[in-house]
Amino acid sequence: MIFAIGDFTSAKVFDYLKSFEKQVFAVHGNGDTPFLKSELPEFLVLELEHVKIGLYHGRGTPLGIASRVKNTFNRELDAYIFGHTHIPLNKYINSKLFFNPGTVSSFKNSIGILYINFNNIRGEIIRLPFHVMGI
Questions:
Q1: 0.70 exceeded by the pTM?
Q2: Domain 2-127 class, CATH top level
Q3: Do 70 and 43 meet the contact criterion of CB atoms below 8 Å apart?
Q4: Contacts of 126 (CB under 8 A, 6+ apart)
Q5: What SS3 class is residue 76?
């Protein structure tokens, strides 16, 4: 599965993710085109392996973003996956995972991997040694 949390900036990037022939769960970001904003939801809630996961791009400054992301959802979840700040985060707060994989569009490239199995979720941030833009 691929979780994509926005700022694709063009449908070409979203199409590229779909080309991996994996199930793609995606939300739009504030920097996305009007077409992507109309095609993708602002936020999404999934339940996988008995783990409730919220996807949301995020808004505002990095300061306090975890609580803003959590407050976007009207229920308790096990994990909150977000982006927007481009700052990697892999942290449990009150037994809930707050996970931001970072970005592939700057000099500090990173991606995230989530491991989900029956009632458990954990994240890992992977720093990429190269610039991957040009998709």
A1: yes
A2: alpha beta
A3: no
A4: 110, 111, 112, 113
A5: coil
